[in-house]
Task: inverse folding
């Protein structure tokens, strides 16, 4: 064998055994702000496989906290992104009323509640003078809304921006008019029991519900719901501390039943009302346990349930917040 052929053979063996590699790559509602004691908004030579395989390094995508993590845990996390607004609009059913909705990602809870106004949650600060607030009727990692009048002249056509409690600013968005139209809510698709956007797929329709009930049955089981519970100590001035451990509260069957000409959602033995009867909250279900009634969002392929309760606020401002949550996919 010639010298050149020998070199070619050696090179071929090195290249052929290299593996190389490549890098890889959510609750609760407050009092209606249009009334009460608040402002009325309506007015080398070695084999490469022996080195560091790039696939074995830390996945950069894995270092990014989720929306649900950043929502309440941002004070102890260092990599939470700035809030991102996808769209803002005036629409129906903020919490049973019209209101300004802001949709996006990485919205943060202020970990504090307005205890004198229905325990409304503090969150991102809405910068335009027209809103000028950091309390919301509905607050979640990907969606916030505030009750307003149904007046597009007042509540559309202006630019807005959000500032998270950690000080990071969002992009600027123009508030559109979506009154009377069907809007798409932001769903993260996670299974986190306390992710307020885990299952915000479109509400289950009557046709979808009927398709799950096989003749001649009058009921159908969607699956078993595992309800989790967690609590934390709070103060009306200084806000809330860290969450305690998450515990299992109960397990209940989620299903459907024929009721007259409709199909109703059921949780255990409780009747939760007609499918598709809301936007954010589609049904109210009695849990039969310490949570009392649960709010639910039931879609064609998943459901989430939640509840939030507070103890009496003491003279020193101290109280306890307890949350219940569950996500089921079927």
Result:
């Amino acid at each position: 064998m010639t010298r050149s052929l020998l070199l070619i053979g050696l090179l071929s063996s090195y290249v052929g055994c290299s593996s190389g590699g490549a890098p890889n790559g959510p609750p609760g509602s407050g009092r209606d702000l249009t009334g009460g004691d608040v402002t009325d908004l309506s007015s080398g030579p070695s084999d490469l496989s022996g080195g560091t395989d790039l696939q074995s390094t830390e996945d950069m995508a894995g270092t990014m906290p989720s929306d649900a993590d950043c929502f309440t845990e941002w004070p102890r996390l260092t990599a939470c992104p700035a809030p991102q607004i996808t769209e803002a609009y005036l629409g129906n059913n903020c919490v049973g009323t019209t209101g300004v909705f802001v949709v996006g990602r990485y919205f943060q809870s202020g970990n504090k509640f307005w205890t004198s106004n229905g325990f409304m949650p503090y969150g991102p600060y809405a910068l335009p003078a027209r809103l000028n607030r950091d309390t919301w009727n509905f607050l979640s990692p990907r969606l916030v809304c505030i009750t307003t009048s149904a007046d597009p002249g007042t509540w559309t056509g202006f630019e807005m921006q959000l500032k998270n409690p950690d000080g990071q600013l969002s992009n600027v968005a123009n508030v559109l008019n979506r009154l009377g139209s069907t809007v798409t809510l932001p769903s993260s698709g996670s299974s986190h029991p306390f992710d307020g956007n885990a299952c915000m797929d479109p509400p289950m329709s009557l046709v979808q519900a009927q398709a799950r009930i096989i003749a001649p049955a009058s009921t159908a089981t969607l699956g078993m719901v595992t309800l989790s519970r967690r609590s934390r100590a709070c103060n009306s001035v200084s806000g809330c501390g860290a969450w305690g451990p998450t515990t299992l509260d109960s397990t209940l069957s989620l299903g459907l039943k024929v009721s007259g000409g409709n199909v109703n959602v059921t949780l255990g033995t409780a009747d939760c009302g007609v499918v598709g009867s809301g936007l954010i909250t589609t049904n109210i279900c009695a849990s039969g346990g310490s949570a009392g009634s649960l709010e639910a969002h039931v879609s064609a392929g998943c459901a989430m349930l939640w509840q939030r309760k507070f103890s009496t606020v003491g003279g020193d401002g101290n109280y306890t917040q307890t949350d219940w949550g569950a996500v089921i996919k079927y």
